Amino acid sequence: QVQLVESGGGLVETGGSLRLSCTASGTFFSIDAMEWYRQVPGQQRELVAAITSGGSTTYADSVKGRFTISRDNAKNTTYLEMNNLKPEDTAVYYCSADFRVVTDYSDEEFDSWGQGTQVTVSS
User: Fold this and answer.
1) Would you report the helix, strand and coil content of the chain in percent, each value rounded to 5?
2) What is the C-alpha separation between 17 and 45, in angstroms, rounded?
């Protein structure tokens, strides 16, 4: 079993900053991409940023230049540094990771999700 645990959400004023963390635990062979998504009630979950095991990054247009995704492979952790926050960034932020589990009998890949952390930006 694998688990993702997010932390770092909270309430911040417009223009402020927050840093989210997401740590993977459990038994797995490797982690490929790690992603951050966000969701507002009544809307679809959207991809905010992604980072591969090699460090290549992708960002939603709405956060380019303000958010930075990074990862520490030794700690199985990804971070999302969010600067110049806007009220429209308010959402529940979810971490996702692509795990690979190898046993004597199988070699499987699957996605797992964290429980989410609330980010609220006041105007």
Assistant:
1) 5, 60, 30
2) 22
Q: φ, ψ for residue 59 (rounded to 5)?
A: -135, 150
| DSSP 8-class letter at 105 | S
Report the chain's C-alpha Rg in angstroms. 15
Structure tokens at 89: 């960034």
Alpha-carbon gap, residue 11 to 117, rounded angstroms: 11
- Could you write out the DSSP letters of every residue in 30-75? EEEEEEEEEE-TTS--EEEEEE-TT--EEE-GGGTTTEEEEEEGGG
Cα(82)–Cα(15) distance, integer angstroms = 10
Per residue of the chain (123 residues), give pLDDT as tens.
Answer: 899 999 999 999 999 999 999 999 999 899 999 999 999 999 999 999 999 999 999 999 999 999 999 999 999 999 999 999 999 999 999 999 999 999 999 999 999 999 999 999 999
One-letter amino acid at 39 equals Q
The answer to whether 122 touches 11, Cβ cutoff 8 Å, is: yes
Q: What are phi and psi of 115, to 5 degrees?
A: -85, -10
